[in-house]
Write a structure and sequence with these properties.
4-stranded antiparallel sheet, 47% helix, globular, alpha+beta
Length: 386
């Protein structure tokens, strides 16, 4: 089957593996005092000072060219850094989207002026980005986008509409929004473009969405007669759909799609060790989770190799995210069942709080970055089944 033939086992280059001691020292210096349940919020952990610290150390924008403030390295380098950050539970939300998606998007599709302005700021951890894709009533059906940027002769664009479920819009400096610049929502993928929106512009308002955990990393963003400069457009007008699908390959394929529950898994493993549990059921559960994680990591490395080769493995990245988020969602359920089946064991308060948090947030794992149904549609189309 083609999609599997394209996923060839790969390994991390030695020069990228060599980065681990330095990034581990920086992470330890920052989070060594954080309890398990706080580290379990790694994806949602917003710490702009930590992001700037990573930027000053050269760990943000690693794959960007040196002339734009990056390190001129490849996707494998970022794989190592992300793996270390998430495994430790470091707060990554501040620079996460800019580093993973906005920077590469501007590099590949932006103008030279956009590259020179935004990319050095991204690499230093100073420019924080969010992504405006989902809209009320459309969910992951991005082709039904209704937010519209009307061309204003030679004076730029007039933006009106609303985005929702926008991660960290409250704390971001810029949004890269998918908007309609021609036609109507019935035209589906036609007439869509991407624009950079300075979130401090008049007419932009951001409203937080508080979730069940008490966090508010999602937001609604409203645009009312927002005037964008002519250079707000990224890439070609009307090519937004093609650009977004390429951008989502960066989002869906990385180790972030398998490590969302790993702090909990690690804490539960330490608990089992402290209880000296070596019964068959425990060994089978721990071995099974470890084996799944190992296979997913190999798959993620294989997709990273495709990205490193300059390809856009949309189908393979979708497969990776579907399987990865299923694993991430299974971890809190299986850990919770295990702890409940051993009522006589004392459970550390931090482990208990981490379990409650990950259990509450786990349903979102298969929503963010494309729902399971959307991903499976992409996979089916890639296999010629629809």
């Amino acid at each position: 089957m083609r999609v599997f033939e394209d996923l060839v086992l790969s390994s991390l280059p030695a020069e990228d593996e060599a980065l681990r001691p330095e990034i581990r020292a920086l992470i330890a210096d920052t989070i060594s005092q954080l309890p398990t349940d706080v580290r379990a919020r790694s994806w949602q952990g917003f710490d702009a000072a930590f992001s700037r610290k990573l930027g000053r150390a050269g760990f943000v924008g690693l794959s960007l060219p040196k002339e734009y403030g990056g390190a001129g390295r490849g996707p494998f380098t970022r794989f190592v850094i992300v793996e270390e950050l998430l495994s430790a539970g470091a707060p990554v939300a501040g620079h996460w989207i800019a580093d993973r998606q906005s920077g590469p998007l501007i590099l590949h599709f932006g103008t030279e002026e956009q590259r020179q302005f935004y990319l050095p700021r991204i690499a230093s951890g100073e420019a924080l980005f969010c992504i405006g894709m989902s809209e009320p009533g459309s969910g992951s059906d991005l082709a039904s986008v209704r937010t519209r940027a009307e061309p204003q002769d030679d004076s730029g664009w007039l933006l009106n509409g609303q985005k929702i479920w926008t991660t960290n819009a409250l704390h971001s400096d810029y949004m890269i929004a998918l908007v309609r610049t021609s036609g109507s929502s019935t035209d589906r993928q036609q007439g869509l473009s991407q624009v950079i929106v300075d979130l401090k512009l008049p007419g932009v308002s951001v409203r937080p969405i508080v979730d069940l955990t008490g966090d508010a990393h999602f937001a609604e963003v409203f645009f009312e007669d927002v005037r964008l400069a002519p250079d707000a457009l990224v890439g070609e007008e009307g090519q937004g759909w093609r650009q977004v699908t390429a951008e989502l390959a960066f989002e869906r394929s990385g180790p972030e799609r398998i490590y969302s529950s790993v702090v909990l898994l690690d804490a539960w493993t330490r608990h089992v060790e402290e209880q000296a549990r070596k019964d068959e059921a425990t060994v089978r559960l721990l071995g099974g989770l470890t084996a799944r994680l190992a296979v997913l990591r190999e798959m993620s490395l294989a997709v990273t190799a495709r990205l490193a080769a300059g390809e856009s493995p949309v189908v393979e990245a979708s497969l990776m995210k579907d399987l990865g988020t299923s694993f991430e969602q299974d971890v809190p359920e299986l850990v919770g069942d295990d702890l409940a089946s051993h009522p006589d064991e004392p459970i550390a308060a931090e482990l208990h709080r981490a379990l409650l948090y990950v259990t509450q947030i786990a349903p979102s794992f298969s929503l963010r970055g494309g729902t399971r149904e959307i991903l499976r549609g992409i996979i089916a189309r890639g296999l010629g089944l629809r």
